[in-house]
Design brief:
It is built from 3 helices and no strands. With 117 residues, the chain is mainly α. The radius of gyration is 44 Å and the shape is elongated.
Length: 117
C-alpha cells in the first residue's frame, strides 16, 4: 500500500499514540523499586564484608605470635631417603669421601699443555 505523498506530516502525528518518555507511573515505580533493591543489596554486602574483616582482625590480634616450642628435640631427626629405603637406588654415604678431586686446568701460557715424557 503506497502512501500519499501529498499527505502533510502533521497528520502522521495523529496516527501514533503519544507515550511519555518516562513511561507509565507503574513503570517508574518498578524502576524505583529495582534501583532501591540494588542499593540495599550493595549496602548489605558491604556490611557483611566489613563484619568478616573485623572478625578476622580480632582473631589475628588474639593469636599468639610465633609460639615457642616447650619441648626441645633430643637429637636431630635422621634424613630419610625414600628411594634408597625402597631399594631403587643404592644407599649413599651421609658424608662425601675425599677420594675425587678436581685437577688444575691446563694453561698453555705456562707450557703445561705438553705431555710429560
Amino acid at each position: 500500500m503506497a502512501s500519499n505523498p501529498k499527505t502533510p506530516p502533521s497528520e502522521y502525528a495523529n496516527l501514533t499514540p503519544s507515550v511519555p518518555l518516562a513511561g507509565s507511573p507503574d513503570d517508574a515505580m518498578q524502576r524505583l523499586r529495582i534501583g532501591l533493591g540494588g542499593l540495599l543489596g550493595i549496602v548489605i554486602l558491604l556490611g557483611l564484608a566489613s563484619l568478616i574483616f573485623e572478625r578476622a582482625n580480632q582473631i589475628e590480634a588474639a593469636a599468639v605470635p610465633e609460639a615457642a616450642s616447650t619441648v626441645e628435640p633430643s637429637e636431630p631427626a635422621p634424613k630419610s631417603d625414600p628411594l634408597a629405603d625402597s631399594g631403587i637406588v643404592p644407599d649413599l654415604p651421609s658424608e662425601p669421601t675425599g677420594g675425587a678431586s678436581q685437577q688444575s686446568a691446563i694453561m698453555p701460557e705456562q707450557g703445561n699443555d705438553l705431555p710429560a715424557q
